[in-house]
Every structure is written in structure tokens, then in C-alpha cells.
Design brief:
Layout (H helix, E strand, L loop, with lengths): L1 H23 L4 H4 L2 H25 L4 H7 L2 H12 L7 H24 L1
Length: about 120
């Protein structure tokens, strides 16, 4: 909660200044957009903050090593989507790097299992 509040306090002045600049030039979304778009813009903050708050609540219940491991899942999914859905190049160099990262995670997991 604190990190989201601090982030908001730091970014809000910049966002307001940019919005003021856009309004002076007549290109602000608040001046040109439809009502449905404005409602979606107003709800975007809640939609963005809610998963972060849930993640924070869940992360408090897990050991830090598990959270660190889980942080590799989202980039891996993004990589797979990029390669298989969007046809991004995946060279042998990428494969070696990707393989070493997951090999390291595999060794870490085995060590944790043996430790228990």
C-alpha cells in the first residue's frame, strides 16, 4: 500500500503537468474523447492497482525464495507468446541463455528440495 501511494505521489505532478500541456494544445483526451472512453480512463487506475495489491497480500504469505522463483514465470510466458504467437526471432544464442537461466532455477529447486 505504501509503495503504491509513494509511486502515485511521485508520478501525479508529472501527469498533471502533462495533462495541462495537452489541454493547452487541445489534444487532451478529456477534451476530445467520448464519455465511455473517459469512464475507462477513470477506471484504469483501479484495474491497474488491484492486481498489485493482491500480489502484495499473497507475497506476504510466501517465502522470499518462492516469490523470486515465480518472478521468472511472467517473462517466460511473454517470451513464449512472442515466439509462438507473434513470430519473434529466437536464435540459438537466446536458447542457450534461456536454457542456462532455467537450468539454474532447476538446480536451485533441487537444492531446496534436498534441504527439506
Amino acid at each position: 500500500m505504501t509503495s503504491i501511494m509513494l509511486e502515485t505521489l511521485l508520478i501525479t505532478p508529472l501527469a498533471l503537468a502533462y495533462e495541462y500541456y495537452l489541454s493547452l494544445h487541445g489534444t487532451s483526451a478529456y477534451q476530445t474523447a467520448e464519455t465511455s472512453t473517459l469512464i475507462m480512463l477513470a477506471c484504469a487506475g483501479v484495474v491497474t492497482a488491484t492486481p498489485l495489491l493482491f500480489f502484495t497480500a499473497g507475497a506476504k504469505l510466501l517465502p522470499l525464495k518462492i516469490i523470486g522463483f515465480l518472478q521468472y514465470i511472467a517473462p517466460t510466458i511473454s517470451l513464449l507468446i512472442g515466439v509462438f504467437m507473434y513470430g519473434e526471432k529466437f536464435t540459438s544464442v537466446h536458447m542457450v541463455a534461456f536454457g542456462w537461466i532455467w537450468f539454474g532455477l532447476f538446480l536451485f529447486t533441487i537444492a531446496q528440495i534436498k534441504r527439506r
